[in-house]
Amino acid sequence: MTRAVPASRTAFAAVTTLFxxxxxxxxxxxxLIAALKKLYTLNDVEAQVTQAAFFLGYALFSIPAxxxxxxxxxxxxxLAALALMVAACLLVPVASAVQTYLLVLFALFxxxxxxxxxxxxxxPLAAALGVPERTHVxxxxxxxxxxxxxxxxxxxxxxxxxxxxxxxxxxxxSTVAERARGLVQVDRAxxxxxxxxxxxxxxxxxxxxxxxxxxxxxxxxxxxxxxxRSRWATAGAATIFVYVGxxxxxxxxxxxxxxxxxxxxxxxxxxxxxxxxxYWFGALVGRFAGTALLTRVRATTLLxxxxxxxxxxxxxxxxxxxxxxxxxxxxxxxxxxxxxxxIFTLTLERSDAPAAATSGLLCLAIAGGGVLPLVVGAxxxxxxxxxxxxxxxxxxxxxxxxxxxxxxxxxxxxVPAMAH
Length: 420
Hints:
There is one protein chain. The longest helix is centred in the middle third of the chain and has 31 residues, at about 175-205. The chain has 2 domains: about 1-220, Up-down Bundle (Growth Hormone, Chain: A); about 220-415, MFS general substrate transporter like domains (Growth Hormone, Chain: A). The radius of gyration is 21 Å and the shape is globular. It starts with a helix and ends in a 12-residue tail after the last helix. Helix 2 runs parallel beside helix 6 and helix 4 (about 75-100) runs antiparallel to helix 7 (about 175-205). The chain contains 16 helices and no strands. It is mostly helical. It has helices at about 5-25, 30-40, 45-70, 75-100, 100-130, 135-160, 175-205, 210-215, 230-260, 270-295, 300-320, 320-335, 340-350, 355-365, 370-380, 390-410. Helix content is about 75%, strand content about 0%.
């Protein structure tokens, strides 16, 4: 008995690194978009296809991931997911060698499929690896490491991918040799990620028996489409869809937005620093502050305030120029911080569909992260980066509508511990 607790803590530490890992990797999409846009001379819509390819993995692999977990168990599924992610990283240098943007998109789809499996497995593992009374503490800690991974991931991606001479000026990449020099920087970032994932695989392999022993049983659950019969489940899914889309879209264009001479005129690498240490770090700080506030403020009230402020800051980024517009845009991360878990739990409390089906539908709605960036890219291409902030502003107004409706709605269900 005395040895089980340290073993469980060790396994939890390893599982927590999974939260960190997918936050770290996902955050690299933001500087990657800026790099690929320049190197492949993409327009704003073509550049945002990067996010569409990535989030397609969430949409298509969520249900297969649950089936894989029920068949293989936690440890083997996690190891398979990590191996898939390593393969995705190694596909990027292959894409660079043949200079094919479509192969980069395929690599990102493969990466997202592995990350989806990690997410399906890691949440119940984080809850199970310890005493039941501290489930929420473990989940909050694990999710905080996810936010830390996002902050540091942006820094790595920006400092490695965007540090070459080719990104220090606005000269158009016109030759194969110039593109190859820039792609070397992209390859280096993904090779670093691949090496870190291999190290994580070794740790999880050594702890596989401990992880499986503590893992709850994974079973294939009711189809998430069964929740479409619930008005609140569909409303919550639509709200998750626009929230994730807005958050991802803002992160995707931020480097390009801050690079504009009429905004801050920053170099790509410097703009990436601002993205990581203001926009995403604001989300990390807001997660801790929001957790404390939720003990004193109703969830619907806090979501109403956050959505109102995010909509106002998006409108400011749209209408103001120079540093005022830039810092308004960067501040949105702080207000994003509490939205996903709050929308998730408010929906589960009000949906009259089975909780498993409702949760599945909400997870599928994460695919919004691949759709709204395309809309934002289209607006940026036709008008301007500043004008594209009208799209997230509209998304936050939709979230505000959901929050106000939730204040008046009757709570009909219990929120599982996993949803907090």
